[in-house]
């Protein structure tokens, strides 16, 4: 699923390709992907141009020069593709913004979990959906206040978008590894030092992922992500990725809160 780093990459792509071009039409292959009815969407946006964006967690908001706000959620496998109208429509581009410039922006929806529609206000949308501050913007005080109220293991607490927006499964594992906190440590029992380490690790992991445009294979070797099953990073030895990056022990794979979880049994212990 696209998480904060991927959506931030999409945001940069959107800005680099699709700003200041009048929308001539919106082609929708499957209207179930719309959270606003098609007639309203086209009546509102045709003739407008995209002029600014904002990302909060996994949510991308695009603002038009006419004062309207479009919300894009990338579901499980969503993406964007900008292309000239003379070329074939990209595969799975089920929603296409046709610009008068002769170029199009395709919203790629392979599994149809993606959604797009108008919102009246970003802040109202976030409040209604109970979405916490973005992972790159949340303060230590905000994070601490939310976590200390929870009696669940810290991993599912961090996965909850009402705790912090934009961090999913692999990111939480990485954050907890970098912070040296066991994923089953109870949230309300974390010390001020551990909370500070988690807050710092969230920013560090997200900034690293954005720097590398979410290309996991380019992440530093000190990252736990290389132990995950789907990582294709090259290693000198076939079993190298199974070890803790610090060489302390084999990485443990288990389930916490129903999610596949990776951690180091030496670096991350429950006191």
TrEMBL record:
Recorded catalytic activity of this chain's protein: Hydrolysis of DNA containing ring-opened 7-methylguanine residues, releasing 2,6-diamino-4-hydroxy-5-(N-methyl)formamidopyrimidine
TM annotation in the entry: none
EC number: 3.2.2.23, 4.2.99.18
GO annotation (BP), single: base-excision repair
PROSITE patterns in alphabetical order: FPG_CAT (PS51068)
Record's keyword annotation contains Lyase: yes
A molecular-function term among this protein's GO annotations: damaged DNA binding
Stretches assigned to the Formamidopyrimidine-DNA glycosylase catalytic domain: 2-114
SUPFAM superfamilies: Glucocorticoid receptor-like (DNA-binding domain), N-terminal domain of MutM-like DNA repair proteins, S13-like H2TH domain
Keyword Hydrolase: yes
Cross-referenced PANTHER family: FORMAMIDOPYRIMIDINE-DNA GLYCOSYLASE
Protein family per UniProt: Belongs to the FPG family.
The name this protein goes by in its record: Formamidopyrimidine-DNA glycosylase
């Amino acid at each position: 699923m696209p998480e904060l780093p991927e959506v931030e990459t999409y945001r940069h792509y959107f800005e680099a390709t699709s700003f200041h071009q009048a929308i001539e039409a919106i082609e929708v292959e499957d209207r179930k992907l719309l959270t606003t009815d098609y007639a309203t969407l086209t009546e509102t946006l045709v003739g407008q141009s995209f002029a600014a964006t904002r990302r909060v967690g996994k949510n991308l908001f695009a603002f038009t020069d006419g004062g309207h706000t479009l919300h894009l959620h990338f579901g499980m496998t969503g993406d964007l593709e900008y292309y000239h109208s003379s070329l074939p429509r990209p595969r799975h581009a089920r929603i296409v913004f046709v610009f008068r410039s002769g170029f199009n922006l395709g919203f790629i929806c392979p599994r149809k979990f993606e959604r797009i529609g108008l919102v009246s206000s970003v802040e109202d949308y976030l409040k209604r959906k109970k979405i916490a501050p973005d992972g790159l913007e949340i303060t230590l005080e905000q994070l601490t206040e939310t976590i200390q109220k929870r009696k669940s293991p810290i991993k599912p607490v961090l996965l909850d978008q009402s705790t912090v927006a934009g961090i999913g499964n692999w990111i939480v594992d990485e954050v907890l590894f970098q912070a040296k906190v066991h994923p089953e440590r109870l949230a309300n029992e974390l010390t001020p030092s551990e909370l500070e380490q988690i807050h710092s690790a969230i920013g560090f992991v997200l900034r690293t992922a954005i720097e590398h445009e979410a290309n996991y294979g380019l992440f530093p070797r000190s990252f736990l992500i290389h132990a995950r099953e789907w990582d294709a990073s090259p290693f000198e030895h076939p079993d190298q990725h199974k070890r803790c990056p610090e060489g302390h022990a084999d990485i443990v794979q288990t389930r916490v809160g129903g999610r596949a979880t990776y951690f180091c049994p030496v670096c991350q212990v429950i006191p």
